[in-house]
Amino acid sequence: MTAISPGQEAPTRTAQKLRQVHTITDRFGMLNTYLIDDGGLVVVDPRSSLNGQLILYYIERFLRRSPTDIDLIVLTSLETNQSGGIETLRQRCAAPVAALSKTRNRASSPGEEGRGYEGGNLSIPLPFRTGELFSLDALFALTAPHLRQVSIWLQDVGGLPHHEDWRVIATSGAARGYFCLYNPFSWELIGGAAISTTEGGMPILHASSDQRGQQETLRVLRDLQIYYLYPGQGKPLLARNAAAQIRLDW
């Protein structure tokens, strides 16, 4: 287990709020799970049962907190089945599971119309309405177990329920459930599945068939003040202007 806790030296600045994100990494796959500690606890991308166990261990051993303090589980991607991690966590807590609202009508459960809920039918951008739509249907069939566990549907630019400082930024892969989480007060960005870092530490925004949308996502991210960038895979990046280093993966 690799844990990167708040307290690491950052470039000199006047911070509005302290860093809130803890990183827990599966060393076998170098896949990251994130834990937001802003009073409550939010688990972002619990992934496998092993990751779930590491999260629980970290909360109890290092934070000296109870797993019952977890009040939200967030999925930044619906491409992989994260039901193992969800089930492991929910053996010790009663936290609801949240995902991007654009994928709502593909889930088996009706979900809750909570904060950030976006009603109506799923509207898929034109680039996703051809062959990619078929592949998405197959994809969601494979990941149905954790889709049934989702009960809160998040809206683009909305805040996380009870954690309003953390804002949802849907990316060009939104039809797959991709989104980032940004805190404008601690200057942290959780890239989730949309962003990974290379061995050299360069953050990559993953490709989608919507090239215009991808360019717009990059523009939005580069306009943000980001000192801490947490990718879904790879090492977190600490830099005075981390967003300026993000590159497109064509």
TrEMBL record:
One Pfam family named in its UniProt record: Lactamase_B
Record domain Metallo-beta-lactamase: where: 29-232
SUPFAM superfamilies named among the record's database cross-references: Metallo-hydrolase/oxidoreductase (SSF56281)
Entry-linked InterPro entries: Metallo-B-lactamas, RibonucZ/Hydroxyglut_hydro
Protein name: Metallo-beta-lactamase domain-containing protein
Annotated organism of origin: Thermogemmatispora aurantia
